[in-house]
Amino acid sequence: MDFQFTEEQLMIRDVARRIAQEKIAPSAEHWDKVGEFPLENIRLLGENGLMGIEVPTEYGGAGLDSIGYVLAMFEIAAADCAHSTIMSVNNTLYCNGLLRNGTEEQKHKYVTPIATGEAIGAYALTEPQSGSDASAMRTRAVLSADGSHYVINGKKSWITSGPVAKYIMLFAVTDPAAGAKGITAFIVDTGREGFFRGKTEPKLGIRASATCEIEFQDYRLPVEDRIGEEGQGFRIAMGVLDAGRIGIAAQAVGLARAAYEAAVAYVKERKSFGQPIGSFQMIQAKIADMKCRLDAAEILTLRAAWAKQQSLATGARFSTEASVAKLTASEAAMYITHQALQIHGGMGYSKEMPLERYFRDAKITEIYEGTSEIQRLVIARNETGLR
């Protein structure tokens, strides 16, 4: 792994940093308070290539790599975690899934408008009764007698960007008797009849990232909008989640960095008993522990991005690296935001400072795209070969 970044990687990082500091950070408190989707900011990200960083230019993307994507995610997440959630789903779950598994026609039709920021993409795997056990889904897709379309019925829950998405990567059961091998992937146009959105979820954190339940009632999907072959859906979903976990790891690193930097600045200026509180050994211990966890999370996230990039040439899986990065980074974010809030005392608990938002936002990184418990299972099973 080369620790030297290329000019292109540094360029996309700098673009993300500029937008994060000039546009996103100043408005983050507002979007968190009102809980509304920050459409103008998201369109700005798209106009600057940040909604399709790894998407080739012929499909409207920036044509960069996984390292560049992670560096950009660090910057956006440091400004606001909700914005980075929207960016992560667009890049790694939606665009990456179609680029790896879609046809040329599907890529041009369904990736280009998402990568350019003209429209928003989403990913629908979870159902009310199936979260970590994704193979227990009940949403059904039945092929018509003439083979021209599928009729889809069912519900999906916790769909990030669901309230505003134009296109959604959907996973549904086509062969109930086959278990996980009976799941198939589709691309859904939300403008067709039979598609319904539920209420926007009132969440603890990442409140500007709109999330809802979606429902299909006799939704007719053209057979050409199936992704891959029947029965390949579960494999596609798990492969896409490997990439998605790197995005969440990067999000957690950016968020943790913001909290850490706020804590370091505060301990140098806040005085108690006649001296900066940063001179007290207990505070110094906190800073040291925070720094170690932050650096470990950042390096492991970059390693996972590097492994993902290598997989394009070798075809090797990078699920262990992705799970190690997500587990380490998400738990580091939770720890660091907790300690940063503690260091700030009462002021950290106040909504007058962003620390309480960092703390609320950090929790979700331990939950979505595979809980910390699931990451531990993935890592242990890959290491031991036991199930």
UniProtKB/TrEMBL annotation:
Its EC number is: 1.3.8.11, 3.13.1.4
Q: Which family is this sequence assigned to?
A: Belongs to the acyl-CoA dehydrogenase family.
What's the domain of life for this entry? Bacteria
**Chemical reaction(s) catalysed:** 3-sulfinopropanoyl-CoA + H2O = propanoyl-CoA + sulfite + H(+)
Acyl-CoA dehydrogenase/oxidase C-terminal domain residues are 231-382
Q: What is this protein called?
A: 3-sulfinopropanoyl-CoA desulfinase
Q: Which residues form the signal peptide?
A: none
Record's InterPro entries? Acyl-CoA_DH_CS, Acyl-CoA_Oxase/DH_mid-dom, Acyl-CoA_Oxase/DH_mid-dom_sf, AcylCo_DH-like_C, AcylCo_DH/oxidase_C, AcylCoA_DH/ox_N, AcylCoA_DH/ox_N_sf, AcylCoA_DH/oxidase_NM_dom_sf
Which cofactors, if any, are listed as required? FAD
Q: Where is the Acyl-CoA oxidase/dehydrogenase middle domain?
A: 122-218
Domain Acyl-CoA dehydrogenase/oxidase N-terminal residues, every copy: 6-118
List, in alphabetical order, the Gene Ontology terms for molecular function in this entry: acyl-CoA dehydrogenase activity; flavin adenine dinucleotide binding
Keywords for this entry? Answer: FAD, Flavoprotein, Oxidoreductase
What SUPFAM superfamilies does UniProt report for this protein, alphabetically? Answer: Acyl-CoA dehydrogenase C-terminal domain-like, Acyl-CoA dehydrogenase NM domain-like
The record lists the organism as: Pseudofulvimonas gallinarii
